[in-house]
Amino acid sequence: MSKKFSLAIIDNMIWVINLILFIIFLLIEPKLILPKNIVSMIYSVSMLGFLIFAQAIVLISGNFDMSVGAIAGFSATVVAAFYEFWFPGTPWLILVIISLATGTLIGIYNGFMVGKLNINPFLQTLASHVLFYGLMLIIGGRTMFKLPRQYLSFGGGFVGDSILPVSVVALIIAAIIIHIILTRTTLGRQIFAIGSNRIAAKTCGINVENTLVKVFAISGFISAVAGIMYTGYMSCVTMDMAQPDLFLTFAGAILGGVAIAGGSGKISGVFGGIVFLGIMEIGLTMLKTRATWREPITGIILAIAVVLNTYQGRLKGHVLAKESERRIEKERAEIEAI
What we know:
This protein is mostly helical.
């Protein structure tokens, strides 16, 4: 097996796992191959997918964001309260802008505390998690249903008369945009540099503080998009929106190859992590798995994510070391032949 092929398998391990898992579920339930079920597989985790993207960007920078779900829920609650209590009849486009602005501002707040004031990111975002879920109860206090049809269509509508949900299309577009930001822009290179070695990045002239503010602002913006998607998917705003999905945001990103310590990861892998969760969701649903089993299964998925992330790096290092040894042996043999 060549080095390139081995590295390609290791780098895209989540897609290999997805294929195996899909085949297993397909053998158990052949109906899984139907187009509507394949679409449902992504649709069922499309809103969670945005939170996973938000978490992945922060993880790549070498930080954590425990508040992605709270940002999604709070921004959605602000919009619902704005439309139902404060300014009834507000146009749906204004509501979208309010939601995205709310999420971005919370992200900037987190980024300022972490980047400028050097507050521990886990503690800062955990505090935001508690704060904004608490504020949701104060502002909303109950499940809210009154929202414009156009606003709900982002998470609950379909493209034309097709079976393709708008949220799935939006998730794919988001993946492409985030990939471009991370791989083709100065900001993206700075995020990877900070995640790899913050001190070295600062020595190279990168403004670490400002970059971290941008990282958390982007995370907040994407989390607000997730809030819009959750609202449309459920046709309402609940007071625990996205709260049960927090640890799945870590699982999806880590399964996709994002290093827990930061500095590495790619969006194609993260998308694979999202697909993995989608396969699990639709597979367990079709197998009529009891709700009481979902929580333990979530724990198992998170454990698998950590193990996979740990050994993926080690396997890659092993392959590169073997290749280096072969090259040294080849050079030594050539020298001896001379």
